[in-house]
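Me: I hope this is not a bother. Any chance you could explain this protein sequence and its structure tokens? It all follows right here:
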Amino acid sequence: MSRNAAVGRVGASLLTISMGAAAAGQPPLLLEHRFDLPVTIQGHFDHFEVDPAGQRLFGTAVDAHQLVVINLETGQLIRSIPVDTPRAVVYREDLGRLYVTDGAGALRIYDSKSYALVKSLKIEVDADPIAYDPANGHVFAVNGGDKAGHKYSHITVFDSVAERQIANIKVAGDEVEGMTVEANGPRLFANARALNQIAVIDRETFKPMAIWPIKGAKQNTVAALDEQTRRLFVACHEGHLLVLDSDGGKQVRVLPIGQEADYIAFEPSSRKIFVSGGGGHGWVDVIQEEDGDHYHRLGEVTTEPGAATSHLVSALGKYIVMAPSAGNRPARVLVYKIASEQ
């Protein structure tokens, strides 16, 4: 579906986003570096993590079967760690640990300095999205589902200090995508994409709290929270950003975005929403939240075709995009400076 077609399906009463804002002023992201990676890193990337203090990027090169460690100042490859099917990664600077979901059916734990494998914890196949709860050090990893032969999925919970499994949460639907953790409350929000709904889970008791159906959009993939305005932003693969009341799940806005959204972040200090996807030319949409009910687009930045995954690094004032190799083009890391307030 084209961008215009997606916009056309959105009711005027729901759409309060100023398209003209994109044309005024400078772009919301300014390209600083385009680093070409070695030709041995072929194929696409899944979600990645950044070490701001050490200026390192930990990238999951899925098709190359590597966790790649890249110097963000020079673009040089520091280390390549063999992993069967790396999908997502959490970095704990305080413990010097990397927690990597392996689609082959494991949570792999690595030393972040020596890059040695510390421990491998078995879970079901198709382990993919991961989330970290800084309040108690728990790591949540999605696994199972369709590739495991189930009509349901699991969110397996690990104690990142003890490095052991502590719970296994069953979620309806054979495809669960991105999760987000509430800082000032007990909830975990998981995108049960196969059923077009949000599963709300108590991350202290590991019990389900609610199911919120998604309406007017399909393939909900990733989500982010603004806890001040009590809004949950849900990016859908087919071109919509939903704004939900995070108290009860009521949909309050539907905003147009690009196709194949795969990453979203909300920056509380600037009240900006960053969404990226690999559809078409590759894109990042930056949207300003004025309040819980009003938004305007600051601009759309063209990246690279297939460049779905990205990462907001507020500590560095950077936004980083990973682009897959294609044809004669090598895989790339694009480093953007976040523009000042417009």
